[in-house]
Amino acid sequence: MKGYLLFAFLLVCGTGFSQDELSKDEQERREKNIEAGNPFARFGYKDKVATLSKGKYLEFHDLDSIVTIGSVRFNVYKNQIVGHIVQDTLNPDAQPIGDVIGRWMSPDPLSEEFPEWSPYTMVMDNPLRFNDPTGMAADDVITLNSKGIVTKVERDDRPNIFLDEKGNTLDIHDAEDLDSPLLSKKFEIGDKVFEKISNDDLNKAMADAGSIPYDKDANFLEKGWFNLKYAKASYYEYDFGHSYLKGKLGVSTEQMGELYYGTGYVDEVPFVKFESSNTLFNLPDAGNFMWGHRAFLNNLPKDIMLDAANKNEGGADTNADTRAILSGYNYKTKK
Predict the structure, then answer these.
(1) What are phi and psi of 156, to 5 degrees?
(2) CB 240 within 8 A of CB 197
(3) What pTM did the predictor assign?
(4) What are phi and psi of 67, to 5 degrees?
(5) Which of 85, 126, 205, 282 has the fewest CB atoms in 10 Å of its CB?
């Protein structure tokens, strides 16, 4: 019996001595290490967090003062960049830069250079024609003179960028849709990209089409007569694509059919640039631009103009059509 009591005494004592009694400071330190992994701490909620060492070691290392964001070393306490990481791109076995996902925390630094394209668009949506090994800008650079003639081409196997002689970017109005072939076409010096419409030419075309002024104080019958005249003009005098641009650009009836009812793009037909604008319009959208400008000169309110444009289409205009109309409505010719 004494042997059993001695064994029990030794067992209890051994168990007691094997469990270290944590000091208050050590207990707080371990709780702090565990709490570092609590994703709900900022909401004031303390949840149970499982750790391998039960808080003896800090197992969450996102509290470092210096973190890697892309290729930048950043001090989160001082809010300062403290260094850069240079990756050996020639070594296929080189490890990628840490925290690569951090690159998505900042906007595309070149996004302002290409406002017509989403920064998430890969190779201008044309992977069969282009490649983009660096993820940088698409920079086939084509310089055009004031008459729309190519004067310089900087070759690169990427989509085209158009500049005027002062180095200003010329935007493509419908680059993501109907005008996208312009971005992949190979140009040579001397090729014609656009036909310039001067402000004098535009003013003359507006005058030749005639004025149908809007009167906000007109009675019911007068408004009805105005609507009829405007609808008729929109299919004849105000159809500037057919009544003006077809002859100005020397476009055939067959080509007009392809532009309006086919693919919307004809390789031989130049684009249109209005004198005070840096945007290149295809012929139908240039017609929409002129229609919008005539509406402005007719004092047609913007909302009524857009409603009339939708009715002309028998439903709703495309986004590109609406943007072209509004561009013409807001266009100011220089005296």
Answers:
(1) -165, 140
(2) no
(3) 0.60
(4) -120, 160
(5) 85
